[in-house]
């Protein structure tokens, strides 16, 4: 397998409208290193490769696939969404295509019986309430969302989501980056 990493990095950088200097600053590497990589005069270490992919907001695996045609459309019919977690709530993946650039799922929050545990992780989340009510605890703040409400937050802050309605479940459409599933 002969992969032209340099051309792929250069094409990706230009498509995103980044100069070498901007990419270098964002990735924490020298502009000279990026120039050498793009001209194929050097091969980046795994760590530098990872830093460049993160700065470009690209998956590492994309640079190993030669001319793979990506699926432009993925259709999943009602009732065919894969449930991706069994943590007491049900998560139905709405974007199952492995080439996806966004991850969305429908969440059915059930009545919670135990004390909530706040968690934090890299990235961001946003959600839209379809039915019921959802209590979102972010740090020391609590927000109650009702149908039609939406929320966005940095998930690096400790947070917890729980059904807040008198109904047995709350249904929401949720998205987060980086991907969970």
Strand order of the largest sheet: 1-2-3-9-4-7
The portion of residues assigned to helices is: 10-25%
**Which structural category do the helix and sheet elements fall into?**
alpha+beta
Average residue pLDDT: 85
Could you please describe the fold and organization of this structure?
With 181 residues, the protein is of the alpha+beta class. α2 packs across α3 and α2 packs across α4. 21% of the residues lie in helices and 29% in strands. The model has no long low-confidence stretch (mean pLDDT 85). β1 and β2 form a beta hairpin. It contains 4 helices and 9 strands, in the order ααααβββββββββ.
Question: Secondary structure elements and their pairing?
Answer:
Elements (H helix, E strand, L loop, with lengths): L4 H11 L4 H8 L3 H8 L7 H11 L26 E4 L3 E4 L10 E7 L13 E8 L2 E5 L2 E5 L4 E5 L4 E5 L5 E9 L4
Antiparallel strand pairs: 1-2, 2-3, 3-9, 4-7, 4-9, 5-6, 5-8
Helix pairs in contact: 2-3, 2-4
In short:
With 181 residues, the chain is α+β, with helices and mostly antiparallel strands.
Question: What tags apply to this protein structure?
Answer:
4 helices; elongated; six-stranded antiparallel beta sheet; 21% helix; three-stranded antiparallel beta sheet; 9 strands; alpha+beta; 181 residues
């Amino acid at each position: 397998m002969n992969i032209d990493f340099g051309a792929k990095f250069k094409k990706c950088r230009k498509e995103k409208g980044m100069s070498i200097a901007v990419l270098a600053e964002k990735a924490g590497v020298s502009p000279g290193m990026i120039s050498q990589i793009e001209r194929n005069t050097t091969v980046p270490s795994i760590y530098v490769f990872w830093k460049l992919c993160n700065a470009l907001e690209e998956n590492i695996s994309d640079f190993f696939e030669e001319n793979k045609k990506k699926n432009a459309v993925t259709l999943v019919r009602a009732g065919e969404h894969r449930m991706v977690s069994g943590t007491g709530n049900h998560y139905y993946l709405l974007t199952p295509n492995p080439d996806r650039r966004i991850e969305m799922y429908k969440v059915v929050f059930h009545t919670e019986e135990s004390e909530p545990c706040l968690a934090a992780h890299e990235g961001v989340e946003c959600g839209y309430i379809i039915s019921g009510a959802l209590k979102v605890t972010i740090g020391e703040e609590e927000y109650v969302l009702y149908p039609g409400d939406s929320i966005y937050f940095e998930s690096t802050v400790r947070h917890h989501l729980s059904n807040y309605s008198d109904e047995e479940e709350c249904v929401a459409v949720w998205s987060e980056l980086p991907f969970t599933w």
